[in-house]
Amino acid sequence: MNLGEATIENMKELEGTVFELDLPEGGGTVKLTLEEVLPFVPQSRRRVRAKQPKREPFSVYFAGPPDVDTLPQGMYTMRSEKGDLEGIFIVPVGRDENGPEYEAVFA
Predict the structure, then answer these.
(1) Residue 26 domain boundaries
(2) Using CA atoms, how far apart are residues 17 and 36, in angstroms rounded to an integer?
(3) What integer pLDDT is reported at residue 27 of this predicted model?
(4) What is the pTM of this model?
(5) Does 101 fall in a domain?
(6) CA nearest neighbour of 105 among 6, 16, 35, 29
(7) How many structural domains comprise the chain?
């Protein structure tokens, strides 16, 4: 999937999909599950108004396995039978007994 064309609607169709993520420097792979796609509500702040965004902003949340260290924020390529997400920028946003959680924001 071309991430420039991603929308909340077409990403929502991928909820529950397991993606295989390539770790850097030949470090193998790890599986992340796309758990949830939610609208992103930017915080109001005083600034120069930018032009209207080309899509409704949204966030995508991935769950990682509990037995793998939390990945650093960065750009990754994720592959699945339903399509690839090449060059997606994910940020770790938490970790509990179920494993780490990651977020990618599309604006």
Answers:
(1) 3-42+54-106
(2) 10
(3) 80
(4) 0.88
(5) yes
(6) 6
(7) 1
